Amino acid sequence: MIRNVLSIAGSDPSGGAGIQADLKAFSARGTYGMAVLTALTAQNTTGVSAVQTVSPDFVAEQIRMVFADVRVDAVKIGMIANAGIAEAIADALHPHHGIPLVLDPVMIAKGGAALLDIAAIGALTDRLLPLATMLTPNLPEAAALLGEDHAQDRDAMQQQARKLLDRGPRMVLLKGGHLGGTDSPDVLASADHITWFEAPRVPTKNTHGTGCTLSSALAAELAKGKTPEAAVAIAKRYLADAVAAADTLTVGSGHGPVQHFHALWDKADL
Q1: CB 258 within 8 A of CB 243
Q2: Of 10, 78, 211, 256, which one is the catalytic site residue?
Q3: How far apart are CA 177 and CA 183, in angstroms?
Q4: What is the arrangement of strands in the sheet containing 194-197, beginning at the earlier edge strand?
């Protein structure tokens, strides 16, 4: 049976991040993707120029209509934009508590533009974190959620992951890509386990949408019934290969997208 996965996130018209990246990752991981839009962005590989949010009521109605008709096997939440949308998402998902939910707290675009109203951090923390099966912040996002400086080493990463667990999610995957160096370590924290996942850093500027892609791949694997540890391992391997193949694409002049379909496209046809 093909699993159905819902993304609740913003749109990236250049196709590298947001809903567009989520749907590509869902498809690449063998699941059927659905999408609820929270915001429209005007952006390309060099940055974001404008954001138009969707009304909270309409976000909630999109979610209601999907669940009224379609079996949803997992949910991924990305860009929520503001507190009203966070509240609407939490209210709409509350009746469906128990479905695997991956929360990627999208706050800042690759080019530096803010994608979350600072006033929305409280609503995100209070309403959405307790619903999350897995929270997937990078180091700056974790620091913003905790009101601390971002971690500079593995010990600090582990400490911050444990602090985020106290905010309500069942698990936290804290991504260490901002540490620098030749490796990109991530730590998965739960109430009784700490697991490190290692990966070499790929030398490329084409990393637009990596967070969206990883969280979507995670949601797809959880929808298939994988254990959290197995889901993280599979999703990290998929993303690493997508990043390694990113330079086969020629999309834009800034931070280009990863190659979501690296394992599916016939090289002879490229």
Answers
A1: yes
A2: 211
A3: 8
A4: 47-53, 32-44, 4-11, 74-77, 101-103, 134-135, 171-175, 186-189, 194-197
pLDDT in tens, 81-107: 899 999 999 999 999 989 999 999 987
Q: Return the SS3 of 49.
A: strand
Indicate which residue of 24, 76, 110, 175 is catalytic: 175
- Asked about 125 being catalytic, the answer comes back as no
Distance of alpha carbon 61 from alpha carbon 56, whole angstroms: 9
CB-neighbour burial class of residue 42 (10 A; exposed 0-12, middle 13-18, buried 19+): middle
Task: Report how far apart, in Å, the C-alpha atoms of 267 and of each of 206, 248, 259, 261 are.
Answer: 19, 10, 12, 11
- Residue 122 is a catalytic residue: no
Is there a catalytic annotation at residue 250?
A: no
* Residue 15: how many other CB atoms lie within 10 Å: 20
Query: Is 204 a catalytic site residue?
Result: no
Q: What is the DSSP letter of 127?
A: I
| pLDDT tens-digit map of 172-230 | 999 987 777 777 889 999 999 999 998 888 878 888 999 999 999 999 999 999 999 99
Distance of alpha carbon 72 from alpha carbon 70, whole angstroms: 6
**Dihedral angle, C-alpha 105, 108, 111, 113, nearest 10 °:** 140
In CATH, which superfamily holds the domain spanning 4-269?
A: Ribokinase (3.40.1190.20)
Q: List beta partners, residue 264.
A: none
pTM over 0.90: yes
Q: How many CB atoms lie within 10 A of CB 17?
A: 31
149 CB contacts (<8 Å, ≥6 apart)?
A: 143
